[in-house]
Write a structure and sequence with these properties.
- By secondary structure, the protein is an alpha+beta fold.
- The chain has a domain at 37-107: 2-Layer Sandwich (HIT family, subunit A).
- The chain has helices at residues 7-12, 60-76, and strands at residues 20-23, 27-31, 39-45, 84-86, 102-106.
- It is globular, with a radius of gyration of 14 Å.
- It binds guanosine-5'-monophosphate.
- Residues 7, 18, 30-34, 88, 94-97 line the site of guanosine-5'-monophosphate.
Length: 116
Amino acid sequence: MSEEKTIFQKIIDKEIPSTTHYEDDLCIVIEDINPKAPIHLLIIPKKPIPKLSDASEEDVSILGHLMFIVGEMSRKFETEDSFNIVINNGASAGQTVFHLHLHLLAGRDFSDLFPA
Ligand code: 5GP
């Protein structure tokens, strides 16, 4: 019995629509449907790693690629000097979709989350 696809797998498989800003063999970048900042992108690997702590050594190049694409997207959206990256890992940490993804948030001050 196959497991139910996550919403992100359905987006990767083009079964449901999304606003897509970038796609390559390894990942897709979409707009979050419920943005928490003026710019709120999701960088999603095509490989269905449920959460960051499930990644293995063979995923190192994918993880590096995702971080590189963060930088690319920050330049594309002209926010390379001011953005935050969030990865929620596990339900109790706020993860709701169990397909690894990076939130790229910009255009809003999150510095109060990490006061100096
Ligand atoms: P998490 O809470 O797992 O870290 O983040 C999941 C994110 O996916 C949330 O910010 C939520 O708004 C977003 N999301 C959930 N369903 C959809 C969808 O169907 N389309 C898009 N573009 N984003 C979604």
